[in-house]
Amino acid sequence: MKTFKFSLIAIALTSIVACGGSGDNPSATLPDVGVTPDTGNQYQQIIAHWNSYFIGDSSTYDSELQNIVDSKDSQVKEWLKSHSLSESGLWSDIKIDVTNESTLGSSLRQTYQRLFTMAMMYKTPTASVYNNNDVKKTIIESMDFLNRNYYNTETEQVGNWHNWQIGIPKEANNILILMNSDFDTDNNKHIIQNYVNATRYFVPSPSEIIIQGKPQSATGANLIDVAQVVLIRSMLSNNADEFSTVIDALVPVIQHVENGDGFYQDGSFIQHKDIAYTGTYGNELLKGLGMIIGSLNANDDVDVTELNKIYPILLQSFKPLFTDGRMMDFVNGRAISRASGQNHKVGHSLLNSIVSFVESAPNKYKQELKSFIKTNIVNDAEQDYFDVVLTTKNYQTARQIVADVDIPVINNIEYHKQFINMDRVVHARNNYTFGIAMHSNRVGNYECINGENLKGWYTGDGMTYLYNSDDQYTNYWVNADPYLMAGTTVVASDYNQLQDCSNQRSEQKKSTQQLIEFAGGVSQNQYGVAGFDFWNAADTLNAKKSWFMFDNEIVALGSAIDNSDSYTVIENRKLIGEQAFSTETSLDKFGIRGELTHISIDANNNYGSINYLVLGADQPTLEKKCRNNNWSDIGTGNGNVGNTCFVESKISHNIRDNYAYIIIPDSDMTNYTNQVDVLMNSRTAHVVRHNDLNILSGNFFDATNIENVIQTYTPMSIFIKETNDELIISVSDPLRTATPIKFELTNASDISEDIDRLVSINNSQIMVNTTNLDGMTYTFKLVKVTQ
Length: 787
Known about the structure:
Beta-galactosidase, Chain A, domain 5; Glycosyltransferase; about 25% strand
């Protein structure tokens, strides 16, 4: 490993830099964005646009932005006082210890981050340190010092590779590009060139990362990050060849993939080989890509046609996963174990990233993007998007979008979306959003690395997520019982026995759950069905599980539970304030024949009531439990969020048991009349009819006959909507075997619509060719036979 160097001359200079006089503070004007007309750099327009993200338009700062500027301005003044060039770093509170390989990279990154904050204030016209000579000298000499002693072509990468190849060079490049006119002088040009050399040493390619000395193809967010490093480097060095390699490297990121990391045709986004990660790694990808595309669009000579393919992806992959400003937790991975990774914060950060795309959006996408952004900002009643400014320019753009009366708020929310390539389902209505997280032989169950998400064992085991107007999942994970995740079926003897980070079944851990093949479902317009032939991580429990999602209710069925000591969790809900809950067992209530148990969690402060109808003789438990855990119990954070109470309900099972319950997300039950009939809940099939909607739907795990209704010959998911003269039929093959789906219906005859010509009928047997469907839904129509 290289011995880090320390210059006594450079150290001595700190007293001169830190103790100099104050600089000028001219009146507020548009910012100096780092380039001057006579620099000869062909990328002036792109550089100017890039820098504008950090400074915005200072002539239109509102009080919120100016307060932030004033606060950072004061910080910079304090940092100037405490700054020194020493062997232990630039500031005593960020110690750079070359003997500690695990912290060296992160300490350097934090140091560069602080210098970048100083650079932003130096370039902000409304800051008192605007164009301050002391600030400029401190930054320039610090950058030189850090390069010579810590980050150069002789430095060995130690600890986490991410710091050296992404974290540090991104911050360093942003400083150099923002203060380009200050560094691009006869005295300081060498600093730019030294950083160009250093970043080229650590990041030689815009499409590769170096792990343990070996190049690997970068994917997803990592590719965007290293491409950004090379992009800024190419503009700093005015290198046209390197610039063009970045454009070429970016295009594959937004091309659909069929396996591994990236975006899929159905809208799924995978990172770390098989983990659903739209929320956090998806945000890292968008954060950089939006700024890159926006900046490239500033130069008419740059062709961004291929990069503009990101716009339909924004609407297909990200938009359905938002609910009132929150990003659904089941695509946030291990970030749920961070205080900074809660759903509002992830959602707001993503919205900030998406705002970057608005200005350069093609007209056919621009209005929909603006309406989506405005709806999620306005509808977030728990946390104000504008309380945190992540990017100055985007903050100002978002303010303009919200204030624009011609941009509508989306009031009629009604959709069902199945992300079959990451085993996630979203079902949304105006007053609630319901989600299901599964896994399979294609998708991992959960991720625990770097000491985060230590108890995420069951979060992908058919866990159900119900978002309504309360703030349910914010700070939920630190205090919720991790053995009682709603919707999951669990071996009872495992309770309080699992080791942190254990039971990961994923490609990353080389232990994908090969026993789970049936994970998927079928959708038709705003309705859908999900099916899951579940095996637990230890292969000691198997259960067939289904969810049928309509307007006012979700039906959950389970059968063939192959374990004699297990339970299914109906709910584990955080109580808001003094929310009341109750349970009663009765007969023939709400239009349901036979025994049922009614569980109610009442509304509080206008939060919607939730009701659960447990069908049959099952006797669910109902308990209130309160906890005050520490973030360190589930991750690397510290501190707690205070005492939190939960209402917990579960059903215990014997061998080959089953269960059935209905979730009614937003109703006081006063006028509720059940419209659902469970036609079958067996080892081979789960079938439900919704009488009011004229819908028959089911998951068939094996060949099954329901007399006078349907005969199936192959596994499938099916959804049938009956009209006056037609049957609208949607089918899928969750197994993805590419073998034909075969079934018979008692009330169907000829084909009336078959757009892709995949359907045939032979002697009343209906056959659907699934060769190229890969688990996706196919919809066709048959003529209805009048009985």
